[in-house]
Amino acid sequence: MRPLVRTALTAATAAVLVCSAGLAGGTATAAPGTPAPTADDATKTSTVTLITGDRVTITTGTGGKPSYSIAPVPGVDRTGVTFSVNTVGPDTYLIPSDVAELAGASGVLDRNLFNITRLVKEGLDDAHTTSVPLIVQRGDGETVSGVSGLTEGHSVDVLGAYAAKLKKSATGNFGKQLTDAATTAVPKADVKAAKDRRSVVPRTQLAGKAGRLAGISHIWLNGKVKAADWDVNLTQVGAPTAWNAGVTGQGVKVAVLDTGIDADHPDLAGKVDAEANFTTAPSMMDIVGHGTHVAGTIAGTGAAAPGVRQGVAPGARLMIGKVLDDTGQGDLSWAVQGMQWAARNGADIVSMSLGSGPTDGTDPVSAALNQLSEEYGSLFVVAAGNTGPAASSVSSPAVADDALAVAAVDSTNTVASFSSRGPRTGDSAMKPEIAAPGVAITAPKSSGMKATTPDPKYVTMSGTSMATPHVSGVAALLKQEHPTWSWKRLKAVLMGTATAASGGTYAVGAGEANAPAALAAKVVTDTGKFDFPLGESTESVSKTVTLTNTGDSPTTVELGSTTDGSDVPAAALGVTPAEVTIPAGGSADATVTVDGSKVPVVGTTATSLTGALTVTPDSGTALRLPVAASRTRWLTINAHTTTGAPAVGAFTAVLNLDNGTYTSGQLGASGTVRIPVLPGRLAVTSTIQERDAAGKPINSVVTADVPAEATSIALEAKTAVPIYADLHQGGTREEMGLYRLSRVDETTHSLISNGMIGGGAYGPLERGAMRISPTKGRVEDGTVWLDEHWTLADKDSSNTTGDATRLYDLVWHRSSVPANPVHTLSRRDIQRLAKVDTDIYGMNEDAHRSQMGITAIGEEIVGLNVTTPSFVQAPVHQTRYYTADGVYWAKLGFHSDTVKGGTLSTNLSKLGITYKNGQRASERWWGGPLGATGEAALIGDNLKTNMQDLTDSDGHLGSYGEFTFPQVGTGGMRIYRNGVALTSAGGNTAVDGSTEASYRIERSYDAQNVFPSGGRISSVWETEPAKASVDGSPALLPLANLVWSARSLDLSGRLTAGRSTVLDVQATSTALDPADRRFNGALAAYTLDGGKTWRSAKAQAVDTRGHFRFTVPGAGLKTGTWLGVRFTTQDRAGNSVSQTLLRAALVR
Questions:
Q1: Residue 286 a catalytic site member
Q2: What percent of the chain has pLDDT over 90?
Q3: Is cis: bond before 676, omega within 30 of 0?
C-alpha cells in the first residue's frame, strides 16, 4: 500500500463521505491512569434534528475538524436506514436512504434540509430553535390537511406555497410519512407560467401512502438570505451629467428590499411612499444600517451634506420592504414576500442587496423573480455576492435569468477581489451582467447603528451590496427618461451602454453602468447579452438580435464583433449583415454566429469564447453587447439496481482526471442524470440504495472510467460484490459498517468519494448488505482509494439491546478494490490490535442503554470521521480492540433518558487517541464525580471562552442537554477584568487585549435533580495578568482545571453507605512557564445536605504535578444521601481554580 499525500488536498474536493478531517493539536495517547484535559482536547458539541426524525451530533475539536454521529431521535424506529454522507466544498450533507428518492432529481425535498453545515451556520441547530423552518408548496388545486407538528405561516403565493415550521419533536412522525410517500409527476397547469420554464419550479406531487402529506409538491428549507456584506465617486456612473440634463429619477418607484430604513435621516426624509415589514423585527427601523445605506445610494437627497453627498437618482420615490431582520439575515420566504409586495404595488425597479448562495438559477427564489418580472414588469437589480474570486460563486437570486446581476468595481474600474464571479453553475450562463462602484462607498448612516463613525450622518462600506444601488439608481434615471420601456429593454440598454471594465466577462459582465450613455441611446436591442452553450460541438450556432431605432430619423448601423484574448481567433465570432439602415421607429434583425470549430480547448482547461457584438449607429450612442460561448461538456449517467431497475435518487459524483475539476448530481425517476463537465478523462462514482424482495437493504458503491470522447456512461449495481470483515475463527457479526470509495487525481490532489454507513443505532447490519464494484484492471491505476471502518461484535450479542462485551474497531486503506474485498483477520492480525479494557459507568443507574460512537482518521485515511453509535447496556465492562499504528481515534459517548416533556442527554468525547500495535490500555466513561473544565484565549481585543460543563474521571469532555419543555437547567458565566465586570455574548467578550490584566471567570450550571447524577456545578477561575499575542494568534489564559475520581464508586456510579471514600483530584495548569505548572497546596470540603453545611477535609498532595487526594469518612455516608464536594488549588504562578459539585455521588 503506497502512502498518499493527504495534506495536499485542497478545496477542490467533492466527497460523498467527509474528506480530510484531521484532528488538531498533539497526540493524546490512551494509557492507564487519569488523564487531564488539555487545550487540544477542548470540544464543541452541537446537535441538529432532521425532518426525517434523525439527530446528528457534531463534535468539533480545537482545530475545527468535526466528527459526525447519526442516530434516531429517541423513541423513533429507524431500523434498517443507511446514509450517504456527501461533502461538496465546505458543506456536508447526510441523506437517509429512505428519502434519497425524494431528495434526488425529483426535488420534492430540498437537499439543504440535509445540509448539516448550513443548518448549524444559520442557527437551526437544536440549541437555537425547536422547529425546522420550511417552505411547503402544494400541487395545483391541492390542499394539505393538518400535519401534526407542522404550523402554517404566511403565504408565498407566487410559488403556490406557504412558510411553515415543523416542530422537531414531531419529526419522527413526519419522517415516517415521508418514507411512506411515492412520487408522481404532476404538470403545472398554469399556461402563462408554462410558457417559460424559468418562471416556475417543476412540480412533483407526494402521493401513494403519503396520507396527510398528499398534495405537497415541494418542501424547501426556509433558509437564510443575508445582506451581501458592504462612495466611490458618483461621477463613475455619470450621475451628475444626468442631473444636469434634468434627469433625477423623478416619479420612478424603486423598492429596496433590505434591513429596513432610518426614514428620519435628513437625506431620506419624505422619500418613502410605502413600507412593509416581513420579518419578526419589531419595527422598520434599520438597526444594521445596510438598508439605509442602500436606499441613500439610490435616492438620497444629500440634505445632510449639500453638494457633497447625494443618491444616483435623488428624484426617485422609495418603497421599503424589510426582509432582513435586525441581525442582517432573513428567511427565504420573507424575501419572496417582499418581492411579491414590491412587484404587485407597482415598483419599477426592485433593488436587492442580498443573497443566499450559488445555484443554477432554478431555485425557488430565482423562479419567483422570473415569474414576477414577466407578470408585473419590474426590473430586479440584484447583488452578485461577495464570495469572489472563486468561479461560479454568484448567489441566488442574482443567478435568475431575468435578474440584472451586479458586480463591484473599484475607483479604477477594476473588479473588486471580493466580487462573486461567474459563470452560473450548471449551464455556464453569463453572470454577473453589469458592474458598478462597490469599494469604499459613503452613504447615509442609520441612527439605529451602534457603531461610531467619524461622520455621524454617513458611513463608508464596501461590497456588491453597495454596487447594486448604483445600478438601481441608473435604471431609475433611464426609466424616467423612457417611462414606457419594459424591464427587458431597460436591462438590455443598461448592459449595452456599459463602460468596459477590467476583470473579464465572467467578472464584470458588460462592464460598468454608464448613465449618460444609457440616456443617449437611440438604437436599442432586445437583449443585453448572448450566451452560447457549445458543449463539445464544432457546429456553428446562431442567435437573432432585433435592433430598434427609437429616434425620429433613419439611422445606419454598423455591426461588428470582437473576441477577447489570443486563444480564440476573431473569425470564431461574427455577425450579419455588417450594416443595416433602420427607419425612425422601425426595427431590423441581425444574426450573431459562433463557429464552434474555431473555439479550441487549450491544455486541460476548456477555453470559453468571450467577446462582444458592437452596434455603431451613424449618430448617438454605440452599444457593446457581451458574448460568451461556453465549452461545457454534458455527460449522461445512467445507473441501475441489482435487478436492472432505475437507481432513483442515487448520488453521483464526477472527477476530471485531467484537471481535477469535479461536480455532482442525483439521479432522477428514470435513473438518469445529465451533468456538465469539462473535456477530459472522467471518473464517475455513485451510491445505489435498494431493497431486495424480502425488504432487506442492499447498498452498492459503483465506479467507472469515462473516456475523453464519451458523452454517456452506465453504472450497474450488479457489478458490485459484498464487502465486510471477519475474524479467522468467525464468531462475530457486523455492528457498524462504513466504507468509502474515492477517485483521485494525484496531480491536483482533488478527489470525489462515495460511501455508505449502516448498523449501529439503525439496527442490525446484515452481512453482505454492503457492496462495492471491483476496480483492479477496470479503472486507471493510481486513481482509487478505498477506506473502511468495520465494528465487529460477539456473534451471540444483540445490536438492539447492546449487550456485547467484546468489540473490534478495524480500519483499512487500500489503493484498489480487489475481486474479493472481504477481510479475514488472522491470529497475528488480532495480536497486533490494541486491547482496551473499557468500563462504562451508569449515572446512578443499575441499567441504562447508552451509546458509543467511534470514528477514525489517519495519514492514509480520509472520510472515516462519521459514525452511527452502538448501543451499550450500561453499566458494563467491555474488551475493545482497535487498529493501532497510523490511526487517530475519536470516541463519542451518548447517554440519554426519555422523560416527561422530552429527553435528557449527557454526551462525552475524546479526540486524537492513538495506540501502538499490541498495546494494553484501559479507560472509563461517565466515571464520577462529574466535573467541568474551561478554556479561554485572548485573540486581539476579544476574549473567547470554551466551557465544558461535563468532564468525567478519564478527562472525557462533554455537556448536559435538555430537550424538554420546560427546561429546568440554568447556567451562566460572569467575567471580570481587573475586577470590573464585562459583557459576554456567544463565548466572546470584548477586552483591551494589548495590556496585561488579571481575569476572573465564574461559571455555573444547575439542573437541580433532573439528571440521574451531576448537573449541579459551579467553578471559579482566577488568573495572573495576561495579554494578547502581538501576531494575533490565540494566547491561552492560564486557567487551571480539575478532573475528579472516586475509588469507591461502583459501576452504577454510587457509593456504599458507611464506607469511607477516597477522592482523587488531578489539577492541571497552562501557565506559560513550565516551572509554574506545579501546585502549592489545596483546600477540600464536602457536604451531605446539598450545600447547607460544609465540612473540611485534609487534601494531601500525592505528587507535585497536581495530584491531590482527600477522604470523606463513612460515618456520614447514609443511604439516600448525596455527597457534594468542593476543591480549591493554585499553581505556582498564582492561577487558581475552585470547583463545587453538589451532586457528586449518591450513597446507596
A1: no
A2: 59
A3: no
Catalytic member of 265, 290, 293, 895:
290
**Rounded Cα gap, residues 257 and 252, in angstroms:** 16
Q: Which residues pair with 1036 in a beta bridge?
A: 937
Domain layout of the chain by residue ranges: 225-513, 541-630, 931-1147
Angle of CA points 269, 271, 273, to nearest 5°: 125
User: Does residue 258 have an active-site annotation?
Assistant: yes
Cα separation of 84 and 103, whole Å?
Answer: 12
* Active-site annotation holds for 956: no
- Give the model confidence (pLDDT) of 996-1015 as tens digits: 999 999 999 999 888 999 99
Residue with the bigger pLDDT between 896 and 464: it is 464
Neighbours of 1118 (CB within 10 A): 11
C-alpha separations of 820 from 759, 809, 814, 823, 986 in Å: 22, 21, 13, 9, 52
3-state secondary structure of 570: helix
State how far the Cα of 315 lies from the Cα of 299, in Å rounded to an integer.
7
Q: H-type helices in 714-755, by residue range?
A: none
Please state the φ and ψ torsions of residue 99, each to the nearest 5 degrees.
Answer: -125, 10
Catalytic, out of 110, 229, 231, 258 = 258
- Residue 1053 φ/ψ region, left for φ over 0, alpha for ψ in the -120 to 50 degree band, beta for the rest: left
- Cβ-Cβ contacts under 8 Å for 796 (sequence gap 6 or more): none
The number of CA neighbours under 13 Å toward the Cβ of 624 is 20
Could you tell me the pLDDT band of residue 864, with boundaries at 50, 70 and 90?
Answer: confident
How far is it, in rounded angstroms, from Cα 883 to Cα 831? 10
Length reported for the chain: 1148
- Is there a contact between 1122 and 1055 (Cβ–Cβ < 8 Å)? no
The rounded distance, in Å, linking the Cα atoms of 456 and 921 is 65
Given a contact cutoff of 8 angstroms between Cβ atoms, the answer to whether 495 and 453 are in contact is no
CATH code for the domain defined by 541-630: 2.60.40.10
Gap between the Cα atoms of 1118 and 764, Å rounded: 44
Element housing 58 (H / E): strand 54-60
Same fold for the pair 225-513 and 541-630:
no
Residue 384: count other Cβ atoms within 10 Å of its Cβ.
Answer: 35
CA distance between the termini of the chain? 55
The span from the CA of 252 to the CA of 268, in Å, is 15
Do 419 and 464 touch, CB atoms closer than 8 A? Answer: yes
Please spell the DSSP secondary structure of 784-795, one letter per residue: EEEEEEEEEEET
Region at 1052 (left for phi over 0; alpha for psi -120 to 50; beta for the rest): alpha
Let me know the angle formed at the C-alpha of 192 by 338 and 278, rounded to the nearest 5 degrees. 10
Amino acid making up residue 204: T
Cα–Cα distance measured from residue 333 to residue 156, given in angstroms and rounded to the nearest whole number: 7
360 exposed, middle or buried (CB, 10 Å; 0-12, 13-18, 19+)? middle
- Report field, pTM of the whole predicted structure over 0.70: yes
The catalytic position among 97, 106, 396, 465 is: 465
Q: Phi and psi of 494, rounded to 5°?
A: -60, -40
Which residues in 191-316 belong to E strands, given as ranges?
204-208, 216-221, 224-227, 253-258, 272-277
Closest Cα to residue 504, out of 396, 593, 409, 400? 409
pLDDT at 138 over 90: no
Amino acid at 200: V
Q: What is the dihedral of CA 193, 196, 197, 201, to 10 degrees?
A: -30
Q: So what's the pLDDT on residue 408? A: 95
In the 8-state DSSP scheme, what is residue 97? G
- Cis amide leading into 389 (omega within 30): yes
pLDDT at 27: 26
Residue type for position 867: T
Secondary structure class of 100 (helix, strand, coil): coil
Q: In this predicted model, what pLDDT tens digit does every residue of 727-775 receive, in sequence order?
A: 999 999 999 999 999 999 888 888 888 889 999 999 999 998 999 999 9
Name which CATH class applies to 225-513: alpha beta
